[in-house]
# Entry
Amino acid sequence: MDGGSLEVEGYLAHPRFAGLVRALAGGFLGAQQVVPRLVTQFASQQRCLISHAALASYFRGMLGGKPGMTQRDFVENALAHGLSSRNTAAAFFAEALYYGLIRVCGPDRGRASIAEPAPETLWGMCEWYRLHLAVIDGLDGGTRAAIMQSGGITLLAAVEPVVADALLASPLIRNPPSTYAVFASVDEGGSLMDRLIAGSDPTADLEERAVTDVTSVSALAKPFNISRTHAGRTLAGAIALGAIGWTGVPGRSPLWLSRAFREDYARVQATKLVIIAAAFDAATAGAGVGSGLRAMPAPPAQFEGVRPAW
# Structure
């Protein structure tokens, strides 16, 4: 699915889409307050795609009677998709284990240990999908978000492998526009970008510049536990591209977002949404959602009742 499909163009042309994209960015920020470590994995393009590839492999293994994955499995999976170096993937796995995003689910054998996503990670992914599906519901009046919430991990297991494959195959997702990539290529860059979009003037969707409520680098960086230097360097890269700028004195006046930057952000989101909608509709098609889900394995007992509070 590329960024120029008819479905993507249809989303972009919808009069409510810009507002729903701002709400989606706000939803990402809300999730960040509840599960910051998990959201961090999706706040850069590389980490996001590695996470999707790993989750898809996990669910396929679960369906095939081989749940969990070793560090070697994780690393080889990342390498197979051209997402990172061997050392980067290994470090990512170790970090995810350290922060409890994944956990050992059998005897601890060091690098040969079998790991699985933690319950909070899986339910957090359910919420990631619910946020996206709520945007689609906002366009056509559907009830996908509610179905996702009730289907939980069982539905997640059906949707995630299909979505991951499509994201990994999408030219736009793998190589986004430069105004988007300048944020997505750095740690927490996605969160910085979401904050700018969520704080942009909702009455300026058709204007060349939309003023935001962000007036200092320090205030922008603080919620994401990143340094002012890191945030400032990221903003400087975006300013050099003409994607954003200060309305007055740098660091003491509101930032503005160019129309091109906002459109690039919207196109990436629309591409994701089309992918997610297709996978969700396929997973819930047939004689009804219930019959479609019964073929999926029930969530492991330790996952029952674990739901994020946001």
User: Anything to note?
Assistant: Confidence is low (pLDDT under 50) at residues 287-310. The beta strands are 102-104, 115-117, 209-211, 244-246, 255-258.
